[in-house]
């Protein structure tokens, strides 16, 4: 996480419109995870790569504006009511999530996998919604968890479908994680696009996966109100989700479920043409 501040400085040098103070404040808000029992300034500084003195000023300001609170312990911060209100506005403006819920829960139950919705977050993939299979033990990935672009099916699907004008920035933001560079990203992109063209879903090579305890298959969905695709994924332990099962059963079911969502939304199938 120490590279976050460095990435901000690089972006500022590239574009004079980039406002570093705002970016730093947002990086503080993004440091929080659902499992956190509050964060102190030192922990926020560690996660963001920002100096502790800078974090102290930012948390003071964000608390004053209601975006952070520290009601239980004065030295530890939590997301505040203003941030909750902002999140509710954002969620309400993305209409497909509520419609996708019953479909993805059905898919999770049918396949015994954890179904999830992921979006690109700079140079990583952020989980924003999960659907756990009922009465079936599955892998545990919580909302707010971030996956690498390289070595995850969700990340490979992002690289394969990201609009060309956004690809370079995503690769720069991820550089250094799992050795991803422009050449590696181009190779992953080509492989993912080939898989999407042939079968409609992406499966990262399990030997390159970020964790030996996860297998996953992913497919994109392009919301009308977003500039880039989001990714739907099904994942489970390797013993429960073999490569053959991903390819022959779960991948096709995932693809069909997302196609059903597209039909409900009155959209055609996802096309890569707009993103090459």
From TrEMBL:
The HTH iclR-type domain, residue ranges: 19-81
Molecular function GO terms recorded: DNA binding; DNA-binding transcription factor activity; urocanate hydratase activity
UniProt keyword Transmembrane helix, yes or no: yes
The protein's Enzyme Commission number: 4.2.1.49
Record InterPro entries: GAF-like_dom_sf, HTH_MetabolicPath_Reg, Tscrpt_reg_IclR_C, Tscrpt_reg_IclR_N, WH-like_DNA-bd_sf, WH_DNA-bd_sf
Any Pfam family: IclR_C
UniProt keyword Ion transport, yes or no: no
Superkingdom as given in the UniProt entry: Bacteria
UniProtKB keywords: DNA-binding, Lyase, Membrane, Transcription, Transcription regulation, Transmembrane, Transmembrane helix
All copies of domain IclR-ED, residue ranges: 82-267
SUPFAM superfamilies, A to Z: GAF domain-like, Winged helix' DNA-binding domain
Residues spanning the membrane: 82-104
Protein name per the record: Urocanate hydratase
Organism encoding this protein: Profundibacterium mesophilum KAUST100406-0324
Lineage per the UniProt record: Bacteria, Pseudomonadati, Pseudomonadota, Alphaproteobacteria, Rhodobacterales
């Amino acid at each position: 996480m120490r590279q976050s501040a460095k990435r901000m400085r690089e972006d500022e040098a590239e574009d004079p419109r980039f406002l570093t103070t705002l970016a730093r404040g947002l990086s503080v808000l993004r440091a929080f995870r659902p499992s956190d029992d509050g964060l102190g300034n030192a922990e926020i500084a560690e996660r963001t790569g920002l100096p502790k003195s800078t974090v102290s000023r930012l948390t003071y300001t964000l608390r004053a504006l209601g975006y952070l609170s520290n009601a239980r312990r004065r030295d530890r911060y939590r997301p505040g009511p203003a941030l909750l209100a902002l999140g509710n506005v954002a969620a309400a403006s993305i209409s497909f999530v509520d419609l996708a819920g019953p479909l993805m829960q059905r898919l999770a139950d049918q396949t015994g996998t954890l179904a999830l919705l992921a979006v690109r977050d700079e140079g990583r993939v952020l989980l924003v919604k999960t659907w756990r299979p009922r009465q079936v033990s599955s892998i545990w990935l919580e909302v707010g968890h971030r996956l690498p672009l390289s070595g995850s099916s969700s990340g490979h699907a992002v690289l394969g479908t990201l609009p060309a004008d956004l690809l370079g920035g995503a690769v720069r933001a991820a550089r250094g994680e799992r050795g991803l560079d422009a050449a590696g990203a181009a190779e992953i992109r080509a492989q993912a696009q080939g898989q999407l063209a042939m079968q409609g879903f992406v499966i990262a090579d399990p030997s390159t996966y970020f964790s030996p305890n996860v297998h996953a298959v992913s497919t994109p969905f392009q919301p009308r109100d977003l500039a880039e695709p989001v990714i739907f994924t099904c994942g489970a332990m390797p013993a429960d989700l073999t490569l053959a099962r991903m390819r022959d059963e779960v991948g096709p079911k995932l693809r069909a479920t997302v196609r059903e969502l597209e039909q409900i939304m009155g959209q055609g199938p996802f096309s890569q043409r707009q993103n090459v």
